[in-house]
Design brief:
Pfam families: AAA_5, CbbQ_C. GO terms for molecular function: ATP binding; ATP hydrolysis activity. This is CbbQ/NirQ/NorQ/GpvN family protein. With about 280 residues, the protein is α/β, with parallel strands linked by helices. It folds into 2 domains: about 10-180, P-loop containing nucleotide triphosphate hydrolases (Rossmann fold, 3-Layer(aba) Sandwich), CATH 3.40.50; about 185-275. It is built from 13 helices and 9 strands. The chain has helices at about 1-5, 10-15, 30-40, 55-65, 80-85, 100-105, 120-125, 170-175, 185-200, 200-215, 230-240, 245-255, 260-275; strands at about 45, 70-75, 85-90, 95-100, 110-115, 135-140, 145, 155-160, 180. A 5-stranded parallel β-sheet has the order 2-5-8-1-9, sandwiched between helices. A two-stranded antiparallel ribbon has the order 3-4. Strand 6 (about 135-140) and strand 7 (about 145) form a beta hairpin. The protein is elongated. Bound molecules: adenosine-5'-diphosphate.
């Protein structure tokens, strides 16, 4: 990727451009707030449970701001080199290959690090100099210090529910970001999202949202999280293909959420009571 990025940046950036307006239903004033943060190139943290709309929001914002978006799904084996880049061997010898963060920094994209706490600690160290007034990325292995493109912005997501003491962002990292809280949308907004995304009638979408809201009350009583908006969209899509409500909810909500037989039965009761 590095070779391509250096020889033809426009072509590379083009791959990351969002061409069509993504559907995003604003929940509060997050669009305006994010716009103001971007105007200042302020790093932003999107906080909230999985499947509540963080990724869709950043896709929408990138489209709205006309910036390419480079998304990295962080995982526990991810190291700083996966973000920044590394030397690779090819027929002509060693060539440097930029990582996705470096590409975004050089070319002025929004870089979205999804679930950064999943990655090893050394990854958070590389983002520090990018998140203060220096806006630089040191490529130690290459002996290069990159000054970030003026359009570059760093955005991370963070799920407060999953964090444990060992797997949390350091205070010194957290304090570099402005943060937007993403809960699940309120009932009318979530109904609108599910109806539109799954292509089902609002009445049916509302029923799924009611089920989800009940399931969210079970958080901490056998469930780590209740049903997410994403799960409701999936349920709605199965129903749209002729699957019954119960079967669709079983497949997209009950079975994915828990392996515990009692908790599954409790969820099934919630679904029958709402249906
Ligand atoms: P997260 O990144 O928080 O895990 P996503 O952004 O992938 O979650 O959201 C999951 C799905 O839920 C999206 O693909 C979309 O269908 C739907 N969704 C959730 N919130 C919204 C919203 N406010 N507007 C439009 N779609 C939404």
């Amino acid at each position: 990727m590095g070779g391509v990025s250096l020889s033809n940046p426009a072509l590379l950036l083009d791959q990351y451009r969002i061409r069509e307006e993504p559907y995003y239903r604003p929940l509060k004033d997050e669009v305006e707030l994010f716009g103001a943060a971007y105007a200042n190139r302020m790093p932003v943290m999107l906080k909230g449970p999985t499947g509540c709309g963080k990724t869709r929001f950043i896709e929408y914002m990138a489209w709205r701001l006309g910036r390419p978006l480079i998304t990295v799904a962080c995982h526990e084996d991810m190291t700083a080199a996966d973000l920044v880049g590394r030397w690779l061997l090819d027929a002509e010898g060693t060539v440097w290959s930029d990582g996705p963060l470096t590409t975004a920094v050089r070319l002025g994209a929004i870089c979205y690090l999804d679930e950064i706490v999943e990655a090893r600690q050394d990854t958070t160290v590389v983002i520090h100099p990018l998140t203060d007034d220096r806006r630089v990325l040191p490529l130690e292995k290459r002996g290069e210090l990159i000054h970030a493109h003026s359009d570059f912005q760093l955005v991370i997501s963070y799920n407060p529910g999953y964090q444990s003491a060992i797997k949390d962002l350091k205070e010194s990292t957290k304090q570099r970001f402005a943060a937007l809280d993403f809960g699940y949308p309120d009932r009318p907004a979530e109904t609108e999202v599910v109806s539109r995304e799954a292509g089902i009638e609002p009445n049916l979408a509302d029923l799924l949202v009611k089920i989800a809201q009940h399931s969210r009350n079970l958080k901490g009583q056998g469930l780590d999280e209740g049903a997410s908006t994403r799960m409701l969209v999936n349920a709605g899509r199965l129903i749209g293909c002729g699957i019954s409500l119960e079967k669709a909810c079983e497949t997209t909500i009950v079975v994915p959420l828990t392996d515990d037989a009692d908790t599954r039965n409790t969820l099934r009761d919630v679904i029958s009571a709402c249906a």
